[in-house]
Amino acid sequence: xxLLPFRAVRYDPAQAGRLSAVLSPPYDDMSPAHARxxxxxxxxxxxxxxxxxxQDAAGQLQRWLERGVLRRDPEPSLYVYEQRLGTRLxxxxxxxxxTVSGPLAxxxxxxxxxxxxxxxxxxxxxxxxxxxxEPLLLTHRSAEGTGRRLAEWVAEHPRAVGARLGGVTHYxxxxxxxxxxxxxxxxxxxxxxxLLADGHxxxxxxxxxxxxxxxxxxxxxxxxxxxxxxxxxxxxxxxxVLPDLDAEKAARAASGVARVRPLHSGPxxxxxxxxxxxxxxxxxxxxxxxxxxLTDALAGLPTGWHEQPAAVTDHLLIPGCWSTPDLPGxxxxxxxxxxxxxxxxxxxxxxxxxxxxxxxxxIRELAEVGVLLPRKSTSFGPxxxxxxxxxxxxxx
Length: 396
Hints:
Elements: E1 3-4, E2 9-11, H1 13-16, H2 32-39, H3 46-49, H4 54-67, E3 70-72, E4 78-85, E5 88-99, H5 116-129, E6 131-132, E7 136-140, H6 146-155, E8 161-165, E9 168-175, H7 178-185, E10 195-198, H8 200-212, E11 220-227, E12 234-237, E13 239-242, H9 247-254, E14 259-262, E15 275-279, E16 282-287, H10 291-297, H11 309-321, E17 332-334, H12 337-343, E18 351-354, H13 360-367, E19 378-381, E20 391-392
Parallel strand pairs: 7-11
Antiparallel strand pairs: 1-5, 2-3, 4-5, 4-9, 5-11, 6-20, 7-10, 8-9, 12-19, 13-17, 13-18, 14-16, 15-16, 15-18
């Protein structure tokens, strides 16, 4: 695997204002209401990231480049990126271009399935904008001391920029010296194959564009590589909230295909092999799904899914036991368990399904034999802020 230097496009605070006022949380972490509010700001990255029309966004991007709101760095660089909560280091990684398709493609192991309509949407957005606004997030465990070398390098070099978003401070360093670039990427080829932690639809879209548009730009993707041996990513489950499902009825229906027990002490995070239903002030433990019911629900799907809580939820309980249609708003995905529980606290506000946190080793074990998890199974973090470093193709 090779991570290549490139000339990133970045905000110029002298023209754009404070970075904290123009950067955005990752695409998947933004509610529609929050996205609309941010798009009202004149230079906010949300005006590009959430634009309904990619061609309009492309025009906006070009105007910002012409006015100096965004500037292209003068020489090819690698970028060291760091996130801190106060003084505590959350994540440190290296940003560059990664070849993802074609004969020189490096190895990347996806772990989640994708939806065709979302891939088409991402491809249309990237193609119209001719840019990648967010890096893929990849994790690997280096035996070559990649994370240690990054720590030593940043201690000796000044930061390029810093920005604070939601209590987390984001720092960036530019590495322009070819000798230093070689030092920071030494050993990547012999490291553990990177696991794609976030950006499955963007990776699929980029690969599709490389087939549609012959040429180098779409064969590469903006990528952030994190060494989990030094700064492991946090891994959490993604929970489900069904606003129109009565919790007591959900528990009663689930008892027909699994063991359901009331949790008299109230909601808690599920243990491995368990789901927790919550709603209307009550909670239930769901374990031991019936083998025959699970086999029928997962017919034609990978056998590895039988042990996956997301598969049990999305294929056995939601469509089968609860007859919930696959329509917008019928199932809401939430990354935070406390928020999911709070959403169903009042009477008649629905049912939350809390999923247990997976392990990176377990995910990798399945991914390396080609078993992709159901979509919205995992949440790796912290994810990079959108707009800190962008890959923008030259105009035609």
